[in-house]
Amino acid sequence: MTKSKIRLVQRQLKARRLYRGPIDGVYGEGTLRAIVRALERQGEGVPAGWPLWSKRRRFVAFVQVLCREQGIDVGPVDGYWGPQTDYAYGVLQFFLEHGRMPDPWRDVEPSDANPNRWPQETDRALTRHYGPVGENQTRVQLPYTHRLAWNRARRVNSFLCHERVHDSLARVLNRVLGHYGEERIKTLRLDLWGGCLNVRRKRGGTRWSTHAWGIAVDYDPERNPLQAGRDRAAFARPEYDKWWALWEEEGWVSLGRTANFDWMHIQAARR
Ligand SMILES: [Zn+2]
Fold first, then answer.
1. What's the CA-to-centroid distance between 181 and ligand 1, angstroms?
2. Ligand 1: distance of its center to the CA of 23 in Å?
3. pLDDT of residue 113
4. 266 C-alpha vs ligand 1 centroid, how far in Å?
5. List of the chain residues with pLDDT < 70
6. Distance between CA atoms of residues 16 and 260, nearest Å
7. pTM for this structure?
8. CATH of domain 123-267
9. What pLDDT sits at residue 83?
């Protein structure tokens, strides 16, 4: 809860005549009491147990209520600040400042930089550059702990990748850490790892998947499912622009950014 978030909430409480204190960005008793009254007014829009929630969770729940009132898709009012709430809050903030909703998305223009000279994505070009599938693997040590996307209790501190992408991968992840920091990485779920090396064919095809060479990485598959386009994939949102820029300046290709599907997937092969 930053001061600016608290100030936004205080202004909204004041507009509802629930709060008379200063707009000071301090989450004190007066602000909490006003939030409680606002949540009481919501009735069934908020889960029954909310009065027992922590002070912070009730604050987040009120932000979610505010988003919902403006028709912003914030998901369930659960008092947790996840990526959907983070995104909805950004939309709300824009709406309150500009009096209109932001454009749903901007045209994406992936960079065509390719400083590492990644090959084209054909079996022939990939085999020529990287060798046979499944070989020449090494372990990349991660600058921030990843978690297995399908079992988040499992921490991942390194994973296997092709030796020719190793240094670039390490550079990208270090820059991601430098830009977002650990806390925001967690909020944005940039640490939810969906796998790298996997010697398999493409889904429904006979060609090798780029995972077969250990030159592709998946992140947060749950919120970026294979078929989801820009309107549904979390990674299409503006808060991930820098994430993509950091990959693209090293020549990595996002299928989401270039083909608008499989937003979880990043590869060291050109299309
Ligand atoms: Zn993938």
1. 24
2. 47
3. 92
4. 7
5. 103-108
6. 42
7. 0.64
8. 3.30.1380
9. 80
What spacing in Å lies between the alpha carbon of 210 and ligand 1's midpoint? 8
Angle of the 3-15 helix axis to the 29-42 helix axis, nearest 10: 60
Tell me where in the chain the CATH 3.30.1380 domain(s) lie: 123-267
Please report how many Cα atoms fall inside a 13 Å half-sphere around the Cα of residue 244, on the Cβ side.
22
Question: If you measure from the C-alpha of residue 32 to the centroid of ligand 1, how many angstroms do you get, rounded to a whole number?
Answer: 45
pLDDT for the residue numbered 105: 53
Ligand 1 centre distance from Cα of residue 254 (Å)? 10
The string of DSSP codes covering 110-165 is: -----TT-PPBSSHHHHHHHH-STT-SEEEEEEEEEEEETTEEEEEEEEEEEETTT
Residues within 5 Å of ion ligand 1, judged at the Cβ atom: 216, 218, 265
What is the spatial distance between Cα 42 and Cα 19, in angstroms, rounded to a whole number?
A: 17
CA of 92 to the centre of ligand 1 (A): 33
Rounded to 5°, the CA angle 149-222-178 comes to 60
